[in-house]
């Protein structure tokens, strides 16, 4: 029996930060790997994730190494670090992820992706500062959703608000899951993969082996590592973030905050429509995704800076339209299959993206074969609506630093 080859790409979340094991980290991907087969000895797991990585790093450094391993399953969970840089560009994020996903679809690997919560909510920043970051993360999530559909990925919705307030899921830094959070993420990924026949072992245990961080530990982190992180962001992101916050307050005072949502929606649509061989199908899907992603008071979180796009292909934003239902407790939500949905992106030839950087080129045959292997794109469990695509939501924890 040939071993299952699982390769994990990403940043500190996938590296395992927050879940210590010996002198290093373990994390959700390692917990998941042990449950992919009935006998864990039949799994070959390689973790290429690096703390601080952005989408460009995954494309240029991690993807070539992963392709050389010819994985059966590859996880690509990335994007938060992009939103925490003054260089944030949703067009670049979309181009990087499209090339990464296409590379593995062409090789025949099953893609595992996830959308993530915004860091401003996690760090409990003041409202005017948190909103621009939230808009950026929702833009990244809309791109991840559209491309997950395009390449038939198994997708986990991890952008929900419900679990953010559960302190037991987080490490002391509030930027990474603790052991319990990593286990929750592994359990839900396993459930989705089991539905597609890609995980045959017993699911990981949801119960942690170590206690949740104490208040003393949290304060110690803030006084040591946390201070350094804040200083780095002050020289990189903060000047731009203050300008975005001023813009947010200006629009709010004038009652024109919806314009910021329209700008963000149009930028995402333009980014997806400009991808190689995207065609009309992906552009139309982008309109639907971004209209959902930036609609309603719960999602009115201003400040995407992705170029001077003011209108374009984005659909209208219906101010005041609620998105999704009330949040539920993590432990109370069973994992079930999402309702199947229509593949977005037109024909197989249209949906296969041209790959630059890694040297691989996705074709229609490979993309079509990928969809046949994974069936429909699947997400988590019933709950509040998926912010970017109206899908069901899985209550998990995922964030990077």
UniProtKB/TrEMBL annotation:
Residues spanning the signal sequence: none
Region (Disordered), start-end ranges: 364-384
Source taxon at top rank: Bacteria
Name of this chain's protein: SGNH hydrolase-type esterase domain-containing protein
Organism: Streptomyces bangladeshensis
Domain SGNH hydrolase-type esterase, chain residue ranges per copy: 8-183
Database matches in InterPro entries: GDSL_Rv0518-like (IPR053140), SGNH_hydro (IPR013830), SGNH_hydro_sf (IPR036514)
């Amino acid at each position: 029996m040939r071993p299952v080859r699982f390769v994990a790409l990403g940043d500190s979340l996938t590296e395992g930060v927050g879940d210590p094991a010996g002198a290093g980290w373990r994390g959700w991907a390692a917990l998941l790997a042990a449950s992919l087969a009935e006998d864990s000895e039949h799994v070959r797991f390689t973790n290429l994730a690096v703390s601080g990585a952005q989408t460009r790093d995954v494309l240029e450094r991690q993807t070539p190494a992963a392709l050389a391993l010819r994985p059966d399953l590859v996880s690509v969970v990335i994007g938060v670090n992009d939103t925490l840089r003054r260089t944030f560009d949703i067009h670049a994020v979309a181009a990087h992820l499209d090339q990464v996903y296409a590379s593995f679809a062409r090789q025949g690997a099953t893609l595992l992706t996830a959308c993530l919560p915004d860091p401003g909510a996690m760090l409990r920043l003041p409202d005017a500062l948190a909103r621009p970051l939230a808009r950026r993360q929702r833009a990244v999530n809309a791109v991840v959703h559209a491309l997950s559909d395009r390449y038939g990925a198994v997708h986990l919705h991890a952008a929900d608000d419900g679990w953010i307030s559960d302190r037991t899921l987080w490490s002391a830094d509030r930027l990474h899951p603790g052991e319990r959070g990593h286990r929750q993420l592994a359990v839900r990924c396993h459930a989705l993969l089991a539905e597609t026949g890609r995980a045959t072992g017993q699911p990981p245990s949801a119960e942690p082996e170590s206690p949740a961080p104490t208040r003393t530990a949290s304060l110690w982190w803030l006084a040591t590592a946390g201070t350094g992180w804040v200083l780095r962001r002050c020289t990189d992101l903060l000047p731009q973030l203050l300008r975005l916050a001023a813009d947010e307050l200006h629009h709010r005072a004038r009652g024109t905050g919806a314009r910021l949502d329209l700008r963000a929606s149009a930028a995402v649509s333009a980014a997806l429509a400009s991808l190689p061989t995207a065609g009309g199908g992906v552009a139309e899907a982008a309109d639907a995704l971004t209209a959902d992603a930036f609609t309603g008071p719960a999602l009115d979180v201003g400040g995407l800076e992705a170029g001077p796009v003011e209108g374009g292909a984005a659909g209208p934003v219906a101010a005041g339209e609620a998105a999704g239902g009330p949040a539920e407790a993590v432990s109370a939500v069973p994992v079930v299959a999402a309702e199947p949905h229509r593949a977005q992106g037109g024909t197989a030839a249209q949906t296969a993206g041209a790959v630059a950087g890694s040297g691989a080129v996705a074709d229609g045959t490979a993309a079509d074969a990928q969809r046949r292997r994974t069936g429909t794109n699947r997400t988590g469990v019933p709950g509040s609506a998926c912010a970017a695509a109206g899908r069901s939501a899985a209550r998990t924890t995922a964030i990077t630093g």
